[in-house]
Design a protein that fits this description.
heterodimer; A: alpha/beta; 8-stranded mixed sheet; 11 helices; 8 strands; 51% helix; elongated; B: alpha/beta; 10 helices; binds guanosine-5'-triphosphate; binds magnesium ion
Chain lengths: 291, 278
């Protein structure tokens, strides 16, 4: 693992006296390999390591008796800094209901996570409601209905409507029913599908969400920056949820998405059950990516 | 950008970025760029020669992965288990395969053995209807082994040509869920000794290096002997096929290119080369 790799690397150099800048550079090439194997985007890894290199050289790693440990500390610090601020709760609207729009690629975990968020808000003593705005995937509305039932959260459906209509109806019903939070589930879609990206923009303009959460699969590879950037530029996102981190995916997509969109990670999905939603902690993610 | 003049370190870096960005992984990328460096020791390579050289080297790496599509069917009913991690596209791919086989005049049976996830049975029932094929299902919450048992018994008595068994998504690190696949295998063999003839692992085309870890685990636990890669209609290049192919020699049968009934094509190694180098 990383500590051993770097220690043995620097041990091998100790024999020839003082460490040089190019020694540090060589050590960081090894770290780059680790980051790329963890699915951190190529450019993101490069920019990140440049920053680490500057700090390492500037902070007297060259004169340190424990260079490996110092490099790792710098790596960890910079990673935590980049992954973002300590967790803050989701924004609330001035007038209820607060609307949260769930978006992302096919199969990333939006429907499941919508249910998890519903359960999460209920645990906090709030009165959430769900909107089934995926009218294209077979049995998507059924799926959200079942999930909502399990979570004890009502689900607004209209199998004859359009996604924009259902979203609008849901907001009205949320107001009428005294619900303080509306979570809108949408169909998975490609960021290069103009018509479907346009549809999301229309939904957003209709319900004016306080949060637009990009739900991404934790095992996504280099493509994470492409989809995240497109959603951020075309639709505007306010936060990210990374799912399926109960597996052994290293989750480098977290760093890539955060870097390229500038938006914070809010939650991570760690299982298929309703309670498997965790507030995001940069420290833990940094450990995971560095392996 | 790679199109002018002599090969230098910058150009090799650019090639490295192309390969990593396609999800080929560090190992495969290093081997390809090393080969590029070796070649430029002996002569100067011009810009567009770099790409054709790399394309040829990549093709060589994929040379033992033949064109995909159907394997040779040696027995009927031919039983395919479809497995993979959550959300990879298993259910949708079964719908597409069922349609493809039915259009060829084959008698197809879908076995809805995902009895776990909400509305999984309803979802695949819609696909069966779209493909115009029969389906055997159990209630959500029932034992998937029982559904496999009923499904294969029905396939034999109805003299079906193909059976497509849908299973619940599962992360390969969940030991008990992977054990469940062994159980489904045992149940299948009670009815048809050679079943499942095919265990098709469905991988999401946007998956990074975790795809290799998935493939290894599924081969171990459930005897995966074929691969399908979905969602390559997006911007992901699906390069993880390369390390999987090189390490596990799994034939890639199908590529998913969309959410519709017809959005499935047989794999050809040229597709990876074209996706990586454009
Ligand atoms: N292990 C695990 N599975 C998850 C997690 N989140 C979602 N899933 C599973 O991933 C699969 C896909 O989840 P969905 O909620 O249907 O994904 P989706 O984004 O709504 O899919 P589309 O609507 O088709 O785009 C299901 O099998 C879920 O149970 C997670 O954090 N961990
Ligand atoms: N764009 C695109 N979407 C696809 C493709 N294959 C599947 N999908 C979509 O991906 C999402 C998940 O597909 P499913 O078939 O439900 O995946 P699954 O593996 O059965 O999911 P679980 O059973 O929950 O594990 C759906 O929205 C599908 O329409 C593909 O080739 N291209
Ligand atoms: Mg969904
Ligand atoms: Mg399924």
């Amino acid at each position: 693992e990383l500590t051993d790799k770097l220690e043995s690397f620097f041990q091998g150099l100790k024999g020839r006296g003082k460490l040089t800048e190019s020694d540090v550079k060589a050590a960081l090439r090894e770290v780059r390999r680790i980051l790329l194997e963890a699915d951190v985007n190529f450019q993101v890894a490069r920019d990140f390591l440049k920053k680490v290199q500057e700090r390492a050289v500037g902070e007297e790693v060259l004169r340190s008796v424990t260079p490996a440990q110092q490099v790792i500390k710098i790596l960890h610090d910079e990673l935590v800094k980049l992954l973002g601020e300590e967790w803050t709760p989701l924004r609330r609207a001035k007038e209820p209901p607060t609307v949260i729009l769930m978006v992302g690629l096919q199969g990333s975990g939006k429907t499941t996570t919508s249910g998890k968020l519903g359960a999460y808000f209920r645990r906090k003593g709030m009165r959430p409601i769900l909107a089934a705005c995926d009218l294209q995937r077979p049995a998507a509305v059924d799926q959200l209905e079942r999930v909502g039932e399990q979570a004890g959260v009502p689900v607004v459906t209209n199998r004859q409507g359009t996604p924009v209509q259902v979203a609008s109806e849901a907001k009205q019903q949320a107001r009428a029913g005294g619900h303080d939070t509306l979570i809108v589930d949408t169909a998975g879609r490609l960021h290069i599908d103009d018509a479907l990206m346009q549809e999301l923009t229309e939904i957003r303009e209709e319900v004016k969400p306080s949060e637009v959460l990009f739900v991404a699969d934790g095992m996504t590879g280099q493509d994470a920056v492409n989809s995240a950037k497109a959603f951020a530029e075309r639709l505007g996102i306010t936060g990210v949820i990374l799912t399926k981190l109960d597996g052994d995916a290293r989750g480098g997509a977290a760093l890539s998405i955060r870097s390229v969109t500038g938006e914070p990670l809010r939650f991570i999905g760690i299982g298929e059950k309703l309670e498997d939603l965790e507030e995001f902690h940069p420290n833990r993610m940094a450990d995971r990516i560095l392996g | 950008v790679l199109a002018d003049g002599v090969l230098d370190d910058d150009k090799i870096d650019e090639m490295e970025e192309v390969l990593i960005s396609a999800d080929l992984g560090v190992q495969t990328t290093m081997e390809l760029t090393d080969r590029l460096r070796d070649m430029t020791q002996h002569r100067d390579l011009l810009g567009d020669e770099v790409i054709t050289t790399m394309a040829r080297e990549l093709e060589k790496m994929l040379s033992d992965l033949d064109a995909g599509g159907d394997p040779e069917i040696t027995e009927r009913p031919w039983v395919t288990f479809v497995v993979g991690v959550n959300g990879s596209g298993k259910t949708t791919t079964i719908g597409k395969l069922a349609n493809m086989f039915a259009r060829r005049g084959e008698k197809v049976l879908i076995v809805a053995a995902d009895t776990f996830r909400q509305a999984a049975v309803e979802q695949i029932a819609i696909w069966a209807d779209r493909a115009g094929v029969e389906i055997v299902r159990g209630k959500t919450g029932s034992d998937p082994g029982a559904v496999v048992y009923d499904g294969l018994s029905s396939a034999v008595s109805r003299k079906v040509d193909r059976v497509l068994v849908d299973t619940a998504g599962r992360l390969h690190t969940k030991v008990n869920l992977m054990k469940e696949l062994e159980k489904l295998d045992r149940v299948a063999k009670k009815i048809i000794p050679n079943a499942p003839h095919e265990v098709l692992l469905v991988i999401d085309g946007t998956t990074g290096q975790n795809g290799l870890s998935q493939a290894k685990a599924f081969v171990q636990a459930s005897g995966v002997n074929a691969l399908a890669v979905t969602k390559l209609d997006g911007t992901a290049k699906g390069g993880v096929i390369v390390p999987i192919g090189r390490e596990l020699h799994l034939p890639v049968r199908w590529i998913g290119l969309g959410e519709g009934l017809d959005d499935l094509v047989p794999f050809h190694p040229q597709m990876v080369v074209r996706a990586v180098f454009g």
